[in-house]
Every structure is written in C-alpha cells, then in structure tokens.
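Anyone? Bumping this.
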Amino acid sequence: MTTDAFLADCRARLAFDLLSNTWNAVVLWALRDGPRRPVELRERIGGISSKVLTETLRRLQFNGLIDRQAHPDAPSRIEYQLTALGRTLLAPIDAVGAWAFEHGDEVMAAQEAASTSAPQAPPTREINGSTA
Amino acid sequence: MTTDAFLADCRARLAFDLLSNTWNAVVLWALRDGPRRPVELRERIGGISSKVLTETLRRLQFNGLIDRQAHPDAPSRIEYQLTALGRTLLAPIDAVGAWAFEHGDEVMAAQEAASTSAPQAPPTREINGSTA
DNA sequence: CAGGATCCCCCAAGATACTG
DNA sequence: CAGTATCTTGGGGGATCCTG
C-alpha cells in the first residue's frame, strides 16, 4: 500500500540507490550513536580503506544524510554525524538488518543447496560436439 | 537493538548485498502479488532488458527468494513466484520504499543544494534526472 | 516467449603513495 | 589524522543477435 509503484516511480528507487553502495548503510549505522571521527569509523567498521570511507562520507553528505564538522581549535579533528534526515533512514536500515539476522542462514542454506545440486536440472548448457 | 553489529558481522551485510543489485528489490516487489511470467515482469517494471531480467531472476532463485515453474502443457509458459523466504523480504523492502516516499524530496533537495553551492562536479552519480 | 551468447561501458571499490 | 591522486579491476548492466 505504502510503496506501490516503485517500479515506474523513480522516487522509490532513490532509496535503494542509497543503500546500493556497499558502505553507505554501514557507515550510517556506525554513526547512529553520535558524531564520529573518520578514524573511529574505520575502527568500528573494519575493512574499509581511508579512500573509500571518504568517498562514502562525501556521498552521504551530498545526499544530506550526514554532516561534517571541523573543530576550530583542533586541526585534525573532524567529526561526522547524522542529520535529521539521515536519522530517519536508520529505521529502514534496521529493518533490513533485522531481516538478515532472522533469515540469513536460510539464504545461505539456499545458496548452498543451489550450488550443490546444480549439475543438471536448471539452465545447464553442456557443449558436446560443437565446441564453441 | 535488533541489528547491532553488522559492521563486523557479515550476516547483516548479506541482506544489503541482496538489495544492492539494481533490480533485485524491484523484481521481488513486482512479484509480491503472485506468480508472474517474465514478459509480465518486464511490462510491469519497465526499463529492464530481457537479459538483465533473467540474470536477476537467476540470482534471486539462487538465493532462495523466488521459485521457477515451467508449465508442463504450455512450452513457453514459465512463471516465477516468491518463496516463503522471499515473502519475508517484502516487509524490509517496503520499509525502504516507504522511506523514499516520505523523504525522497528531502534527499533531492539536499542534492540540489549541494550541487548548487559546490561548483565542482557532484561526487555522486545523479540518481535520477526525471522530475519527481 | 524464454533465455543463452557476446561485446562494451562504466564505476564502485581495492591498493598504494603522497600532502597538509 | 584527514584527505587526495593514480592505477587497476571486477562485474553489474545495457544493447544486440540468435535459438529452442
């Protein structure tokens, strides 16, 4: 009911585009408790390079989801925090994350099953004589 | 609360990976009302090529979210439908979609503002050029 | 109609190194 | 520590053609 036609409606895809970037949701989530410095974010997140973090932050900033603040006194003290808009995204993100915790193993099981029993049934194309 | 550490936890990212593909969520959503044939999906969705649709369907199938059924009598009658697991994803998807409807214009406004005030090229791809 | 096969493009993302 | 500049790559996704 709420979201009906986001097939044709571009607006709905907008949110998916936001979450489509690998780190966007992760960074937003890492900021949910308050302002954080890049180095803190990198620690909390793990596995993200400085460059990619910066890109992600710029992207989120560009979309009005986070906020950049430089401390006037301390030179290298930069902090990012969620904007009001950004905070509203936490709920949907949590919904997705919660789903993962509930059904993650089912997905992995399905993947497992699909990988194992794939040999013949589905769209297999085994070339015999006509070697392409 | 529910989803705490999906920063380190790969399980939570799993769901985001599922939604990270451009068409995954869209196709799932297009299937929410029941079984659909590929051609119907293409009509409903719009802007997706046959090849990409097939890829998406395979991917969703691989993850146990949808189900493929060939009609025995009619040769070219293939239908896809959500599995039980797939149906559980509709809620999170709807949460995201609903957010887009609520805050989509805020995001676009932010983008606008960021673009205007920053003479440089926007760090993000334009999500959508069409008018909302 | 379903969907495989190909060719091509683009860009997110990784690795690395450098500057303020 | 924050951030930038390069170079490279993987693969999603678009377009086209072809087949069962």
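Late reply, but here is one note on the structure posted above: Chain B has a mean pLDDT of 83.
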